[in-house]
Amino acid sequence: MLRIALAIMALTMALSLWFGYNVFSIWRYSSSHCKAHVGAILIMGAAEYNGVPSKVLTARADSAAKLYQMGVARYVVSLGGSRKGDVYSEAEVARAELVREKVPSADAFASSYGQDTYQSIAGVLPLLRSLDVSKVVVVSDGFHLYRSVHIAQDLGLWACGYADEDSPIRGWLSFKYMLREALAVTGAQVIGYKEESILRHGQD
């Protein structure tokens, strides 16, 4: 009985350390401001309300527009699908925000695919190939960068992250999201990001 108790304690400690390391990794990467010269800037999706971007989506799009204007990339691609009943996709709304921020429409693309981070990045790959793009800067909230960049890398892209500076998600709320992200990262380290997505949404 003592052996079993000790084994359970050891396993619990190991899992706690593993999860804690992932939380630390997500936190450490959450302040990344990569400005490497790449082929495209990817904007991760966030909520929109009948064509009006949420504050989170606006902050991401505005940060991407600034990077574009700095010459970081030739193209900007917004990601994110739509939910049942939506008129617009997250990607379409973010692209409209880009154009408002003076990104030429010819350089701004919308990839309205996916119900989660993995699906969105996997779904944009054909467009990136058509643009001859293999290197990207991923723009999102800091808590979301670690997982987004790792998914992009797992899918064969060279990727780094840029945390938008004007996100309304800060402080304790941001940390709560980091914990959720750490759960997703830990699960993916066991079964893979694709398999985790399939478990959540089914096979496409």
UniProtKB/TrEMBL annotation:
Domain of life: Bacteria
GO cellular component assignments: plasma membrane
Pfam family, one: DUF218
InterPro entries: Cell_Envelope_Assoc (IPR051599), DUF218 (IPR003848)
Domain DUF218: from-to ranges: 40-164
The protein, known as: Protein SanA, affects membrane permeability for vancomycin
Native source organism of the sequence: Ferrithrix thermotolerans DSM 19514
